[in-house]
From TrEMBL:
PROSITE patterns: GLUTAREDOXIN_2, GST_NTER. It comes from Paraglaciecola arctica BSs20135. Residues 43-123 form the GST N-terminal domain. It comes from the Bacteria. This is GST N-terminal domain-containing protein. InterPro entries: Glutathione_S-Trfase_N, Thioredoxin-like_sf. The lineage of its organism: Bacteria, Pseudomonadati, Pseudomonadota, Gammaproteobacteria, Alteromonadales.
Length: 123
């Protein structure tokens, strides 16, 4: 039964991901210098996610629109990034943004929090 529910969830997630792909629209345009600055800053960020998770799709969509090609880490079963997420952030919940700071690492959960953080910092 659990397997069937997971299968349906993943199938729905893939459909949402496909709809997102065809409807996501345009990326924010920056000057080459500004985009280079963004590229440097996002080296310290990574998004722990599942491909078919609707909250991850929402977050990836916002990242796409903000033109933030942040590294994505697949945290599904069997991936080493899953253990990293658990050890670093304290729980398996995606999306989670890993933020490297001068004084340590922050693990930011909640899609809305992640999107607000990125909007404040990059838009
Ligand atoms: N309120 C959270 C919900 C996130 C959430 O429920 N994520 C699910 C995946 S869609 C999750 O990580 N579940 C834990 C698991 O599958 O092990 C958000 O907006 O980010």
């Amino acid at each position: 039964m659990k397997l069937l529910i997971n299968l349906i969830r993943n199938l729905l997630g893939c459909i949402i991901a496909a709809i997102d792909f065809v409807t996501r629209g345009f990326k924010l345009k920056r000057t080459a210098e500004a985009q280079q600055q963004v590229a440097t800053e996002i080296e310290k960020l990574s998004l722990y996610q599942f491909f078919a998770c609707p909250f991850c799709i929402k977050t990836r969509r916002a990242m796409y629109k903000m033109n933030l090609p942040i590294v994505k880490r697949n945290a599904s079963q069997g991936s080493p990034y899953r253990e990293e997420l658990l050890q670093g952030g304290g729980k398996i919940q995606t999306p989670c943004l890993r933020i490297e700071k001068d004084d340590g690492v922050e693990w930011l959960y909640e899609s809305s929090e992640i999107i607000s953080y990125l909007e404040k910092r990059f838009v």
